[in-house]
Specification:
Distance between the termini: 54 Å
Number of helices: 8
Helix content: 10-25%
Strand content: 25-35%
Radius of gyration: 29 Å
Shape: globular
Structural class: alpha+beta
CATH class of the largest domain: Alpha Beta
Strand order of the largest sheet: 8-9-10-13-12-11
Number of domains: 3
CATH superfamily of the largest domain: Chorismate lyase-like
Low-confidence stretches: 1-84
Largest sheet: 6 strands, antiparallel
Order of helices and strands: EEEEHHHEEHEEHEEHHEHEEE
Length: 321
């Protein structure tokens, strides 16, 4: 089909696209399909001659506007190709599309997502391709498969998720969630280091939280948290004290922020006088200092946490695979 026309150095030329008019293009597969554009020149005898061939990975515009010609050459031998686009496996593209739906809130935490067959029909791909995409999402804890029920959006309200980000485990007995005591909640301007780690501007509003977590009545963790103020509007000490579930569950249900992953740095420190008083230990007692940056969809940092862990009856547990 001919897409446009113009004049160049006295010769008439027409731009065309190889394809069928009115054909519906699956844009999800466009990284696998390169649109071919040809420049046709109308010679003196009235015959079409291929003047230039170019290839790109962009989708033709709605008005089929012509692509600006680059260098002109004589005949097919003078055609040139643009650099090939970077390809990614088809299941990775489907995974990205499903993740976009999770991020946009199309499927809320805890909700059942469409079946593999329905998603295959939606994206015009095979069911096996969808299954492979969901396998990766499940391995990354974004979705949860339940035998005989389907696949659900992961939520921090599930028991299995509550210990995913809590790595301090008792030396004896089964892990259990600690009791929280909120010491302080305030809005403040982000110091330079906090702003850098949260990828915001220095001086932007952040919510600062200090709390002590106890196991069986024994103070064990002192947490300092910084959260972007633009996301966590309305977060107060009263609301944190009222809420009895995990803090990440509150962030998810009331502020629409789901923690996807975290990066941590761990070092050994000694308790100073202020910390010793809050954890009811002697000054100089060894502690684990765990600095964590937590990320939501799009690898966006949404929490900086600095925790001091008492490990008299607990240990920091991690699994590497």
């Amino acid at each position: 089909m001919l897409a446009g026309a113009g004049k160049n150095a006295g010769a008439n030329y027409l731009y065309g696209s190889v394809g069928r008019a009115g054909l519906s293009v699956n844009q999800y597969l466009m990284s696998y399909i390169r649109h071919i554009t040809w420049q046709f020149v109308l010679d003196v005898a009235g015959s079409f001659v291929v003047k230039l061939q170019s290839m790109n990975s962009s989708i033709p515009t709605a008005n089929n506007s012509p692509v600006a010609p680059t260098t002109a050459g004589a005949g097919v031998g003078a055609s040139s190709l643009s650099a090939s686009p970077t390809f990614s496996p088809l299941y990775q593209q489907i995974k990205a599309l499903i993740t976009q739906s999770l991020q946009s809130g199309e499927w809320k935490p805890g909700e059942l997502i469409p079946s593999e067959m329905e998603l295959a029909g939606r994206f015009k791909v095979s069911q096996g391709t969808v299954r492979k995409a969901i396998d990766e999402l499940s391995a990354e804890n974004l979705v949860v498969r339940r035998q005989g029920k389907g696949t659900f959006v992961a939520t921090h309200h599930e028991a299995r998720s509550q210990f995913r980000f809590l790595r301090l485990a008792p030396d004896e007995g089964a892990p259990h969630y600690p009791e929280n005591r909120i010491i302080e909640v305030k809005r403040m301007r982000a110091p330079a280091e906090v702003a850098r780690l949260l990828d915001i501007k220095s001086g932007d509003s952040v919510v600062f939280i200090r709390r002590v977590q106890s196991f069986s009545g024994v103070p064990t963790i002192l947490d300092d948290l910084w959260l972007p103020g633009s996301i966590f509007k309305g977060l107060t000490a009263e609301r944190l004290n009222e809420y009895k579930g995990p803090m990440y569950g509150l962030f998810e249900s009331e502020f629409g922020t789901h923690m996807i992953r975290a990066s941590e740095q761990i070092r050994a420190v000694c308790a100073d006088e202020a910390v010793a008083g809050l954890l009811s230990v002697d000054v100089g007692v060894p502690l684990l200092n765990v600095e964590r940056v937590s990320f939501t969809y799009g690898d966006k940092p949404v929490e900086l946490r600095r925790g001091l862990y008492l490990t008299v009856n607990h240990h920091y547990r991690n699994e590497l695979s």
